[in-house]
Prior knowledge:
- By secondary structure, this protein is an alpha/beta fold.
- The chain has two domains: 2-151 and 307-373, D-Maltodextrin-Binding Protein, domain 2 (3-Layer(aba) Sandwich), CATH 3.40.190; 152-306 and 375-428, Periplasmic binding protein-like II (D-Maltodextrin-Binding Protein, domain 2).
- Helices cover 47% and strands 13% of the residues.
- It has helices spanning 2-16, 55-70, 81-93, 116-120, 130-134, 159-165, 176-189, 202-211, 227-242, 248-253, 262-266, 280-286, 320-330, 333-343, 350-355, 363-373, 378-385, 389-404, 410-428; strands spanning 22-25, 33-36, 44-49, 73-78, 100-103, 146-152, 154-158, 196-198, 272-275, 291-293, 306-313.
- The strands form three sheets. A five-stranded mixed β-sheet has the order 4-3-5-11-6, sandwiched between helices. A four-stranded mixed β-sheet has the order 8-9-7-10.
- β3, α2 and β4 (73-78) form a beta-alpha-beta unit.
- α8 (202-211) packs across α9 (227-242).
- The two termini are 36 Å apart.
Amino acid sequence: xxxGLIGLAAVLALVAACAPGPLETGDSDTGPVKVDFASFxxxxxxxxxxxxxxxLDATKAAIGRFEQATGATxxxxxxxFADLQRSLQARISGNTAPxxxxxxxxxxxxxxxxxxxDYFGKDYRGEFTDGAAATTVDSAGHMYAVPSDQTIxxxxxxxxxxxxxxxxxxxxxxxxxxxxxxxxRVAAANHMPSAMSxxxxxxxxxxxxxQYGTALIGADGNEGLDQAKAEQALGMVNDLLQQGxxxxxxxxxxxxxxxxxxxxFLAGQAPVYLSGPWQIGAFAKSAPFAWAAVxxxxxxxxxxxxxGKMMVAFKHSKEPTLGAAFTQWMNRAENQREIDKTAYWLxxxxxxxxxxxxxPSRDADMNMYISQITTTPxxxxxxxxxxxxxxxxxxxIKEFDKAVAGQESIADCVRNLKTQVAQIVQxxx
Length: 429
């Protein structure tokens, strides 16, 4: 017990310190791993990275601070996301694994990753929100990744259109019927063809499933759809499409491909748009009207639906301890905060989610999305991080399209989807 308390105290001291220092923790089968940040001078590591845009400069700046603090050098190698897994697998096979990589899913590299609990203690995962942390561990509690950034789906509203219609901008806690009613009145007052716009995405539809109390994949990793709740959720969206409150032509015209609803929102064709914080930078530059991010509507429960990225370190790299140290350093509170506010990322750390992050612009909108993290059910995070989620989300769009086109009932849509998701989950194991 005494060793665990010493390890926890060391972790807390390390996070609080401005300068790097030694740390010894871990309860692994082979014993604790000593991490001495003062020992990295002159050492070299590789960080394999894919970029979402403004995060690249923020990451480079953070790496510069790490190099200055430790004397180590970091080779940042940027690859397209589409090439990431192939590149990593090739490097692993060729015994040239990088020390660290930014990934969307750690499972393809299971067996090659170090356990951060061995380096920073079994309580290290507690520094991160429960949802984000749950995506980084296996069933035995081994922490094979560190959650570095996340997104949460949520609505934008055209504030000018709401004001012109004399309808209050949604705030606080409100329901789906209340949002639809408000959006319908605003659209009519502004002669807009649709009340709402939504990205055609299984992730975005999963937001509605979650709000009605169900998910494609459950907390146990198996197919998780509740037939009645899923029918309510998808039935509600289908009603909006059939009534013209969402554009049916836009939805069916996309087929099974992802298609953003941002163009309709920016063109003033719909006063409400369900998407996420990655739109904020573009809207700040190009929206010809006042707009704002607002909370998600509630049904059986509230919140949005997440997406996330994580950092992993490879145990067979040349400098695995340096890789572990770099990952921990990049995700200390002060460093994650600096990256987030420049990259316009949402934090994964409990302390930053609690305090919020001060962004240089559109601060209220970014922190609105941060506020949705704690109201989003934890199961959504593990759902999104499941190796089966991408294929299950595609199946959701394909099957729902049939219902929208009148080829099957919502009940049959859900029954067929449950069968397909069960098969997808089984195939992913």
